[in-house]
ArsR family transcriptional regulator (Halobellus limi), 302 residues
Amino acid sequence: MTGSRAPTDIFRLLADDTRVDILRAVAVAQYDLDQVGSGAAELAFSEIYDRVDVENTSKLSYHLGELTGIYLRKTDDGYSLSHAGERIVRFILAENYGSPESFGPEPVDGVCIFCGADALEASLVHQFFRIDCTACERQVSGQPITPAQVKTRESDALVQSVKRRSAEDARLVRQRLCPECGAQLSVEVVGVPASALPEADSFVVMSTCEECLREYNTPLTYSAVYHPASIAFHWEHGVDVTARGLWEFHEYVYEGRWTSEQVASDPDEYEVVLRHGEDAVRLYLDLTATVVRTERVRRESG
Ligand SMILES: [Zn+2]
Ligand SMILES: [Zn+2]
């Protein structure tokens, strides 16, 4: 249980080279030992002793005692990483505490949601992956990126990884699962008629994690696009929305092919229409932006 311990105590436990080496050694040993389907391996005291540079067994025993309960779990079979141990050791191994290498500006596909120009550029700005419009000079999209994400990819693959990541996050958020900490998100649909957003979609879904305080705000149409009915509809029309970056949806909203509208109040209900050619899928969302029913429309204009 960590509930009674101050965060500074938790981090102070790691201000020691031997303890960081122990966590690293457990991760490396598990990586070496893991067999398919066996789950996380547990390491015996002697196996850790063989892998860590520590004076004697009583010193190791002391450090293991300090780490156990917070960063390590201990069973009769040995030691393995706890949730906090996993998070911290992967963070250390991937060196995600460093600064990402510089990237861009690189031209990317898609149009500006504000001015419609086909003039988007991706770059890293203050460790953030940003898409900017070079025509109206506004920021079109921005998301956090990890140094390891940048380090292991060339530019095209990096942009692709940002798209996949944002699509994965958006799908989790749609299911009210915080991508950062796993807690349940609270969700609210807010009308922003006076905003700079195109009239076609003037609602924003605000998803907030009350636990880790992370916030995710997206236009209402984008929060519906990852519903299976929409994924299937687009797939049948040759578009894999799960491989698209959110900024690549801007043209649909800008051109008014994707629209949202409030169709009922008390309780509030919203209709999102996603069109492709003459076909469309309609999704009805409740006040928590949960899709409650869907329908397909063939030849909507006819
Ligand atoms: Zn623009
Ligand atoms: Zn969270």
